[in-house]
Design goal:
- This protein has one domain: ABC transporter involved in vitamin B12 uptake, BtuC.
- The protein has eleven helices and four strands, in the order ααααβββααααβααα.
- The chain has helices at residues 3-34, 41-57, 63-86, 94-116, 143-164, 166-176, 178-183, 188-213, 223-236, 241-261, 269-283, and strands at 121-122, 132-135, 138-141, 216-217.
- Strands 1-4 form a two-stranded antiparallel sheet. The chain has a two-stranded antiparallel sheet with strand order 2-3.
- The mean pLDDT is 89.
Length: 297
């Protein structure tokens, strides 16, 4: 493999890893607060992509206005899902809430198929954001630079939110012990709603960036990216924000390099991610940066 091709693949792996990391952070934030794998999170990126798609093409909004509306409406949808599908089951067994999350995921996907249609549609790329960059023999889209920058900025913002703000301190308190936090005047409902709003916003941004990088939308577009990002969160340490970031980049790098060095098994690229999940659960279930903790049933 020539140096140019290697650098091209490294650039691609950074871009893919950034997308995985951005969406995985939303998974890990919700899990860190209420110990729930929010499988509907993957479908929120689909909702955001469609809102942006119709905002640009049907309502002829400027791309940045359509993107902001998509993020805001997806955040509201995330809060609504928590209020309707998860909050009433908060004192129920974990499996009940998990089944509810899977049900919400299927609901969003099938509503999309019925209301919009299953046929993929091309996503409009804003010319101000997408252009070709040439460095010697290497050629890549501007998104290869934009996506990692956006991801790192959002990671820094999330870490600041969690570590330095009052709502962040409340999030950490609720994640440790929701009952005790309530006795200390922490409004757990507000904290959980805020967490879903932030996580859903990250899913929306990830969905928009994913649609620009791979420019088409369909009602099932969030299924495999969502599963990959869940694997990235587990790989890095579910519940750890830096772990989700690390897991996303590691998974993106391994996927791209697998195809680059072993093109004859590129058809097993998706299966490779699930092999990683099995191995990490077998040998380090806490993930790279997580802790192995036995949960109380």
């Amino acid at each position: 493999m020539s140096m140019d091709i290697l650098l091209q693949n490294i650039a691609n792996s950074i871009t893919l890893g950034s997308l995985y990391a951005l969406i995985a952070i939303g998974y890990t934030m919700v899990y860190g607060i209420i110990r729930l794998i929010n499988f509907a999170h993957a479908d929120l990126l689909m909702v955001a992509a469609y809102i942006a798609f119709y905002g640009i093409l049907i309502f002829t909004l400027p791309w940045w206005v359509a993107f902001l509306i998509a993020i805001a409406l997806t955040a509201l949808l995330g809060i609504s899902i928590e209020k309707v599908a998860y909050k009433p089951l908060r004192s129920s067994p974990r499996i009940t809430v998990l089944i509810s999350a899977i049900g919400v995921s299927f609901l969003l996907e099938n509503l999309g198929i019925v209301a919009i249609g299953a046929r993929p549609k091309p996503f409009p790329r804003p010319e101000e954001l997408v252009w070709n960059i040439h460095l010697g023999d290497i050629s890549f889209l501007s998104l290869t630079i934009i996506i990692p920058i956006v991801t790192f900025i959002l990671l820094a913002a999330i870490i600041f939110l969690v570590k330095k703000t009052k709502i962040g301190i409340a999030m950490r308190a609720v994640s440790k012990d929701v009952e005790t936090a309530g006795l200390m005047a922490v409004d757990a409902n507000r904290v959980i709603s805020t967490t879903f709003a932030v996580g859903s916003s990250l899913a929306a941004i990830g969905g928009i960036l994913w649609s620009m990088q791979y420019p088409q939308v369909d009602p099932l577009m969030g299924v495999f990216p969502g599963l990959k990002c869940f694997i990235a969160a587990v790989l890095g340490g579910i519940g750890s924000i830096p772990g989700a970031m690390l897991g996303g980049f590691v998974l993106g790098f391994l996927e791209i390099m697998l195809v680059a060095f072993f093109p004859h098994i590129s058809g097993y690229r998706d299966a490779f991610a699930f092999v990683i999940l099995i191995l990490i659960l077998l040998f380090r279930p806490g993930g790279i940066l997580g802790e192995n903790v036995v949960e109380k049933v």
